[in-house]
Structure formats: structure tokens, C-alpha cells
Amino acid sequence: MLTEILINLFERDLSRLEDEITAYETEEAIWRVPEGIKNSAGNLCLHLCGNLQHFIGAILGQSGYVRERDREFSDKNVPRQDLLALVGVTRRVVLTVIVGLTPEVMARQYPERVPGDMTTDSFLVHLYGHLNYHLGQINYHRRLTQ
């Protein structure tokens, strides 16, 4: 079932996000933006958590989360432990919501307007791809800045 697959993938890659943030030698390196790179790993981490907590937590799970997307890219020097705590909260929200999605909900149109007017199951796959894309950027950033 797709729900079980998504749970396993989000669990795995949110754990990988924690591993990447933990692997930085210094907190300063998490926030470094070398020439030719647009975003720091810290900002990408904030962006991923905001994205998932909005589209999965708030929209599908009615969590009450209010996204401040601009802050995902403007905040700087958030301590590593705060980033890791945020990833942990995001993981719990994502997994809790996905576990509760019925096949009927998964087959319905995603409840918020998104490009392509996707069904919920398709949009969750899209969100997983988004997570993985930025996870790769964070991995590259970490290796580049060490």
C-alpha cells in the first residue's frame, strides 16, 4: 500500500536529514553560503520542515501549523539542536498524519490548490521528491563546506 511506502520513505529520509545536519563539523558550516550556492543547509532544513508541516501537517492533518515561508530562507544561525528538534517534530507530524490517511482520502483531490491539481497520493509523492531533492543539496553543501 502506498501509505506504508510513504511512511517508510519519509521516516528514512527525515532521519537522513538529521544525520546530515549532525555531520557538519561546526554549526557555522551549516549556515555558510559558498559562492555559486544559493542556500545554506540550515535554510534548506528550515524550508523542508516548513514545507512538510504546512502541506502534510496543517492541510491534511489540521495541525494548526502556520507557515512563514520567507523566514525559512531569512532566518540565520539557528542552533543545530533547534534544527534537529524541528526535524524530529516534523517527522512525528508527517508520520502521524500519513498513518491516518484512508484510501479514500488518498484518492481525493489534494485539498489545497497545487500545480497540476493532484490527488493527495500524487501530491505526497511530489512532497517526498521535494524532500529528497533538497536532501541531496544539503549533502553536497556539507561536503563542499567541510
Automatic annotation (TrEMBL):
Residues 10-138 form the DinB-like domain. Pfam families: DinB_2 (PF12867). Gene3D superfamilies: dinb family like domain. This is DinB-like domain-containing protein. The lineage of its organism: Bacteria, Pseudomonadati, Bacteroidota, Chitinophagia, Chitinophagales.
